[in-house]
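Researcher: Please translate sequence to C-alpha cells.
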Amino acid sequence: MNSFDCNHVWTGGVRLKHVGPTDCIVEEDVRIFGVMVPKGFRTDGASVPRAFYNIIPRFTDALLAALVHDLRYDPPDKIRILTRKEADQEFRDNLKACGVNFARRQAAYRAVRLFGGIPWARGSKRGIINAGDYV
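Model: Translation complete:
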C-alpha cells in the first residue's frame, strides 16, 4: 500500500520524509529484502529521468527495490559488499519481487547497466570502497 502527503511517503512499510525536491530520508531502520536500510539513509527513489516517469515512477511499486539498490551503490559505512553487476542484478530480482512487470523490470535493469557506471564511479571518488579492494 502506498500513500503520500506533502511531507511523507509510505510504501511497503517504509516511511520516508521529503527533504528536498527529489530526495527523501528513511525515518526508521527497516529491513528490505533481507538488507538493513538505516534510519537517515537518503534516497531519490528510483533515479529516473522525468521523461521516463511513466515507465518507472520514482515513488511507487519499485521504491523498495530502488532503496536497496541506492544502498548498494552508496553504503553508509562506505564499503560495497557487491560488485556493480551484482547490485544491478539484485535490483532486477527485487523489482520482480515488488511485482513490477517484465517490460518495466527489463527497462529499469538496462538503464542501470547503461548509466549506473556514473554514480558508481562518483561513489568511488568519495571514498567508497569495494569489499574486494581491501581483502
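Researcher: Any highlights?
Model: Confidence is low (pLDDT under 50) at residues 1-6.
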